Task: structure prediction
Amino acid sequence: MGSAWLLLLGGVSMKIKSTVWHLIGAIIATVFGVASFFFIVGVFGLPASIIALVLFIALALWIFQCPQTEESQS
Result:
């Protein structure tokens, strides 16, 4: 029973570490995205920045919706 409990705690511990790393990655990606948007605003102006943002979001959604083939799932 002790080793099973240790394995259970190890799995939970790994899941928490994974969640923390996902949160850190999401925060870094958000900061990078905001900085990039403001850089584009400064260089190209607001209308071009809004168009680029809409295109980026549409492309991200399109890629997310694409079905995965069996080779890319493994």
